[in-house]
UniProtKB/TrEMBL annotation:
GO MF term (any one): nucleic acid binding
Organism: Trifolium subterraneum
Pfam families cross-referenced by the UniProt entry: RVT_3 (PF13456)
UniProt xrefs under PROSITE patterns: RNASE_H_1
Origin superkingdom: Eukaryota
Keyword terms of this UniProt record: Membrane, Transmembrane, Transmembrane helix
Protein name, UniProt field: RNase H type-1 domain-containing protein
Domain RNase H type-1: 59-188
Transmembrane segments: 12-30
Record-linked InterPro entries: RNase_H-like, RNase_H-like_dom_plant, RNaseH-like_sf, RNaseH_domain, RNaseH_sf
PANTHER family: OS05G0353850 PROTEIN, PUTATIVE-RELATED
Length: 200
């Protein structure tokens, strides 16, 4: 079995930690043994929780839709999104002024407009990456604790039920900067919604 670079590194960290622990048990004594074990455990935890963050291309035959929503200090909300191919190439994007609403509702609008654009462009395999864990949970489970945004969630779920393959996933905010930039463009628009065939 061939290991990926990350799996190979993780395996080396675990083997190194086990070997270090065996040395401490065999040769450590008293207070020194405790300090050595604590140091080894701290290093092991640090190494195992390190996460590489960066935009990665979608799986073969999929496109990646990154969406974002934001609300400014003046309560004006906007959303934006970008669709890229599996080589990172720009396929389409959008920015939308929403008006007054919460950041949560702006995020939902981003997903709805992004899915609508992807569908209209004819894509049949779409990975949607959203930087809000709450929005991902609400969309995937269909459970919302209050009525605000419910009709928008229903419309998103109706889009997901169409004849296409859509994967909804959480993305770290750092991997969503292009969608965030398009959402921020929304507050400067003179019209409600604009589509970009090319990168603005």
């Amino acid at each position: 079995m061939k290991l990926s670079r990350n799996e190979d590194r993780d395996e080396r960290v675990v083997i190194g930690a086990i070997f270090g622990l065996q040395l401490v048990i065999a040769y450590g004594h008293g207070e020194t043994k405790k300090l050595m074990m604590r140091s080894l455990l701290d290093r092991f935890i640090r190494e195992c929780t390190r996460v590489e963050i960066g935009w990665k291309p979608p799986s073969d035959n999929f496109v990646r839709l990154n969406t974002d929503g934001a609300r400014k200090d003046n309560n004006k909300a906007e959303c934006g999104g970008i669709i890229r191919g599996n080589h990172g190439e720009w396929l389409g994007g959008f920015a939308k002024v929403i008006g007054e609403c919460s950041a949560f509702i702006a995020e939902l609008w981003g997903v709805f407009e992004g899915l609508t654009l992807a569908r209209r462009m004819g894509f049949r395999k779409v990975e949607v990456h959203i930087d809000s864990v709450v929005v991902v949970q609400v969309i995937t489970t269909g459970k919302l604790h209050n009525k605000i945004g419910w009709s928008l969630v229903l419309n998103i779920r109706k889009l997901l039920e169409l004849d296409w393959e859509v994967i909804i996933a959480h993305a770290y905010r750092e991997t969503n900067k292009c969608a965030d930039a398009l959402a921020n463009v929304g507050c400067q628009l003179n019209r409600t919604l604009i589509f970009y065939e090319d990168c603005p």
